[in-house]
Each structure stands twice: as structure tokens, then as C-alpha cells.
Fold this sequence. Notes:
8 helices; mainly alpha; disordered N terminus; 93% helix
Amino acid sequence: MALLLMSSALAVSDQALEIANSLELAQQDLDEMQNMSNSRYSDTLFSANQLYAAQLALENTTGVADYSSLKIKISELKQLKDDALLNSDELKALWVTIEQTEGIDPAPVMKLYFQAEEEFEAERYENSFVSIEETYEKISELQAVETKIKALYDATSSGIINFLKKTWKYIAGILAAIFLLVFIFHNTWIRYRIRAKIVSLSQRKISIQALISQTQKTYFEKGEIDEGTYHIRVKKYGEMIRDLSRQIPLLREQLAMKQKKYNEKTKKGVDNETKQKGKIKKEKSTVEESSEKEKSSKSREKVKSRKKAVVKGAKIKTKTVVKSAKAKSSKSVKSNKVERSKGGKSSKGKKSERSKTVKSKKSERSKSSKSAKGKKSEGSKTVKSKKAERSKGSKSAKNKKTKRSKGRKSAKSKKAK
Length: 417
């Protein structure tokens, strides 16, 4: 504003007025840039104002002035303003990008960001732009590396998972075998190490004793060392031998304890084996006894079944004999009935004939009655003889029944025996 008043008060050229207006706008831009560092801009503006005042005074005195350097200053101020605002916007956008980016190491990115911010605060906008570009490149580089790592991890993890799915049984078997070997030979390995340590310590003790004898020879016989060094060496060697003499018995005691535990375990194992063998023998004997009992019971059942079959067969035979006898008796009864019926018919015909010839028949009847009496006496005799035969048959059947009962009793007594 002061420049405008000054130029208006004086008679100046249009070029001077135009430069005065540009400088006034630059002053307004400086007022807007109060929230950021503006020392470079203000210094440039101050030098431009001084140069303008000098050129304006020269124009008033001589009528000739050179404003080309002022134009350069004004263009520089515009460039500084544009760079400052653009750099501020770029830094804000970069910060948002860094906050939204995940899965990368933020340390190198933040290092470059702080470097760009420092360049902006120092108003070295060109260097700040370079740092911002480097920050973006670093972000993209880290993202690419992260994607590669993820892809490699996915590939390797899937390959390992597939390998484990295919070979987990073999791996489990190998691990189980290793565990069993370690469990079985752990005690033996410890005892082996203790023995090796005892041997090494005893050899070291022998070597130290040899060194003591050597120092004694060099001191007493050769006289190559003085008395002080001799006593110092002997004292150190003695301390070492005492330490070894203390360690060796402790190791032997440890070895004895381990050996005792191992022997107890082996004895328990042998006892368990003998017990198991005894149990197996008892089980075998019980199985054999049960099999023999089953065989004997099966043989008894077979004998019983055979006897039952024989008895059933005998009963069936007797039943068939009885049925056949009944059938024969029924047939004889039927034949007798038929004959009787025929005799009745013939007697009717005879009655008719007798009515015709009564007289002749009477004589015949008298004769037949006499003969009938003789026949009746004969029939009674035959009936008596038949009754006697039947009584004899019943007695023989009773005898057969008693024989059968005696045979059954003898068979039962044999079975019991």
C-alpha cells in the first residue's frame, strides 16, 4: 500500500505501477502464509521492495529505470508461493497414504517423510519434493516385497501342510521310534558319559602327576628353575590334583547310583516276564482243562443221544408190532362177521326149506343135536387149551419184561462206573 501511495505521489511510468501492484499482491500472499515457514519468501520480498524503491528513485531523477531484475524477483516470489502450497498439500496427502498403508515396516517410510518435512520447514521445496517421491517409491517397494513374502509364505505353508498331510504317519512313527530309543537308552547314555568323564579326569590327573615329577627333576637335578617358581608350580599342580580327586569319587558314586537303578529296573522286568509266563501257562492249562471238559461232556451227550435213539427205535418197533397185530386181529374179526352174516342168510333159506320138510328135518335135528353135544364138548376142550396157551404167553412176556429191566439196570451201572 505504501508503494502504491509512493508511486501515485510521484510521476512514474506504467511499468513501475505494474511492479508496485505485483509487490502489493506478494505482500498479501505473505500474510496468507503465516501458518507455515516464510522467511525465504519474506526475505525475497524485502529485497524486491528495496530494489523497487531504488529503481523508482532512479526513474524520478534520471527518467530511466531497469525493472527486469524486479520482474525476476516477482516471478521467484510466485514460484515460492506455489511451491510452498503444493509442498504442504503433498505432505498432507503423503501422511494420509502412510496412515492407510498396512502390512509394511513403517520405519524407513517415516524416516523419508520426516526428511521431506524438514526440507519443507527449511523452505527447500525442491528437496522436499524429491523426498516425497522417494517416500512413495519406498512404500511401493515395501508393498511389493510384502506381497512377495506373502505369496512365498502361502506357497511354502501350503506345501508344508500338504507334505505333513501325506507323511504325518511316517513322521509320527519316526518320532515315536526316536522317543522310545531315547527312553530305553537314556540311562545307558548317561552312564557312558559318566564313565568317559571319569576316564578323562583320571588321565588328566596322571598327566599332572607327570608334570609334578618333571618340575621336581628340573629343580633338584638340573637346577633350571628357581625355588619360587618351583613352589608356585607344585602348589598349582597340587590344587588341581585335589580338585580332580574330589570330582572322581563323586562321579563314581553317581555311576553306582545309576547302575543300581538300572539293575532294579532289569530285575523288575525279569520278574514281570516270569509272572507273565506263569500267567500264560496257567491260562493255557485252564484252557486245556476246559477243552477236555467240553470234549467229555460232548462225548457223554453223544452216548446219551445214541441211547435215546436206540430206545426210540425199540419203542417204534414195538409200536409197529402192536399195530400190525391189532391190524391182523381186526381183519380176522371182520372176516368172522362176514362169515356170520353169510351163515345168517343161509339159515333163513334153511328155515324155509325146513318148513317144507319138517318131518325129515326132525330126524336130522335129533341126529345133529347129538353131534352138537359132542362138538360142544370138543369146543370146550379147545377153549380150555387156548386159555392155557394164553396164560403161558403172558408168563413168557412177563419174563421178557423182567429181562429187559435187568438189562437196563446193568447198563446204568456200567455208565455209572
